[in-house]
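Many introductory courses stop at the sequence. We go one step further.
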Amino acid sequence: MRHCHFLTYFTLLISISIVVACTSKQTSSKLDCIASLIQEHPDSALTTIRAFDTSALNTRSLRAYYSLLYAMALDKNWIDTTDEAVIAPAVGYYNKHHDPERRAKAWYYLGRIQYNGHRYDEAILSLIQAAQWSIPLDDRFRSLVFQAMGDTYGATSLYEEALSFSDSSIVYCLKAGDMPLANASLYRKAQNLNNLKRFHESDSI
């Protein structure tokens, strides 16, 4: 009789595991769909993720993915949150799991959120982590990280450092062939040169 009870319990556990696995796969697919919208249709991505049934986020992996996409969607819609709780699940999870792209992005968006809250020392530390993990990633993302570092140093009046990171950002923008982003970094460079009273160089950009 005890053997039968054990088999019944074991069968139940297997069934539950299968249901959870299937549900997790469906949820991950839905999050993948949101991820595909973020670049070209950020408003739709944000609307969808805000309406997402978070009770379906039944694993740490899913909660981390959702957290990262939410932070990305806010950023793409020019919503400057200061709430670190938005990205905290992603930072905590990806910092312990080998996924350089998501780890780099989690640290990057944490840095951006800290920058929004004027916590510049913390932001720099987060962005250094993002830069470290962004080495194997695409040039456009690396340019964003370096410009964020430049912005943060500029906000603390460390204009020489800000200028250096703006230069790095421009290099990677050009490698990526993203001229709008390169122009934005050139504008930041001109601002830093102006702050350093190198007016002739600033005016020539």
